[in-house]
Amino acid sequence: MDLATLLGIIIGTVLLVVSIIIEGDIALFWSLSSVLIVFGGTFAAIMINFSMSQVLSVFPLLKVAFSQKNTDSVGVIDTLVDFAETSRREGLLALEEKAATLNEPFLEKGIQLVVDGTDAELVRSILEIELAFLEERHRLGQRIFEQMGALSPAFGMIGTLIGLIAMLGDLDDPDQIGMGMAVALITTLYGAVASNLIFLPVAGKLRLKSDEEILIKQVMIEGILSIQAGENPRIVEEKLKSFLSPVERKASDDAKASRGVGGVTTDA
Fold it and tell me: What pTM, to 2 d.p., does this model score?
């Protein structure tokens, strides 16, 4: 579970509720018709804009947004460097079985292409095409939530207009005008909250997770091609570390230095 996503929604909701309670009666801010207009209208528009299979993909995407999947760039680089050392010692054929144990289909596919003797440019082309389609699938999910974020305030305004029309039709009763105006504005509130607290932040979280996964795949492509070229494992490591941020690079170097010190102490 990604605690940042969950806590963000919970904290935002709690702060809104507390603010409402401080200012007045929370019951005034509940309207079933407003919920139906904003959320029902938003999902109906999404169904018109996308195919049914794409709309149904929203639910697995929510699972992705709330899941905590660590992208261990340093671990991937260490694995590729280990593959480079194995390749230099035992040859490319020794990598096939090692790749199968990682449960990483993209890396396994790349290694298999290399083992099969595929040309380096063709290996890059095949892997980059797969990466492009992966990115496109991710972008679809982002577009759905971004569209929901754009539509919900619009349906909030539609609900407000409906409420105002109903209020103007009851001008003979002045006591109902203030209440009618409040109910009309609630729909705009729901649309703004849904857009800025749920839909757009989820789209941003999906974009972040997609960028992290794409980066890992790019590291794999460069590592696979370096292994195929027979480059020195040390050179492979330095090349792949260029994908890391300075903080990640320093943490990786410190971890290796620590392991090195530990090894010397044990030998002594």
Answer: 0.79
